[in-house]
Amino acid sequence: GDDGIDLVGINSIDIDHVTLHGNADEGLEIDDSDTLRLNHATVSNNADDGVDADDTREILLNLVTATGNASNGFQAEAQDFETELITVVNSLFAENGEDGIQIREDPSEVGDVILKSVVARDNAKRGLDIAADTVTQTRVSSGIAEGNGEADLLP
């Protein structure tokens, strides 16, 4: 395929110390899975999103650098299944063609979003674009969003 890594319907996904660079679509594509834990990853210069996790119940990104992707650095979308928890810590999302972090619900729901020590800078659109009306709680701590093309969108 055109993705660096493309996984569908996996119960528990643990990916550590990976570089996904210059792929013809997403760097990492995850669909219809239970849990994604991505640690120590660099996703850069991919033709679409750096990390795209759709319909994944629980997502943890730790020490992820997503730069220069044509679309979003990280995109999560709840389409057919609820996403209960998204946690992003110690990560950088910079110089992406759209948003640094984009979280959407359509039509399913997103529960809690926790962003800690996240830097989202110099993205063409927003650093943080969380357009989810049903988010139970959004917590941002020690985060920096600057130099982005549009104002951040938070619930």
List keywords for this structure.
155 residues; mainly beta
Question: Quick one: overall form?
Answer: globular
Order of H and E elements: EEEEEEEEEEE
- What's the N-to-C terminus distance? 35 Å
Number of strands: 11
Largest sheet entry:
11 strands, parallel
Query: Helical segment tally?
Result: 0
Strand content: over 45%
Q: Mean of the pLDDT scores?
A: 95
Residue stretches low in confidence (pLDDT < 50, at least 5 long) are none
- Backbone structural class: mainly beta
Helix fraction, binned, reads under 10%
Taking Cα atoms only, what radius of gyration do you get, to the nearest Å? 14 Å
Mind explaining what this structure looks like?
The chain is mainly β and 155 residues long. It is built from no helices and 11 strands. Strands 1, 2, 3, 4, 5, 6, 7, 8, 9, 10 and 11 form an 11-stranded parallel beta sheet that branches. The protein is globular, with a radius of gyration of 14 Å. The model has no long low-confidence stretch (mean pLDDT 95).
Quick structural overview:
The protein is mainly beta. The chain contains no helices and eleven strands.
Layout of SSEs?
Layout: E1 5-8, E2 12-21, E3 28-44, E4 51-67, E5 74-78, E6 83-94, E7 101-105, E8 110-121, E9 128-131, E10 137-141, E11 144-146
Parallel strand pairs: 1-3, 2-3, 3-4, 4-5, 4-6, 5-7, 6-8, 7-9, 8-10, 8-11
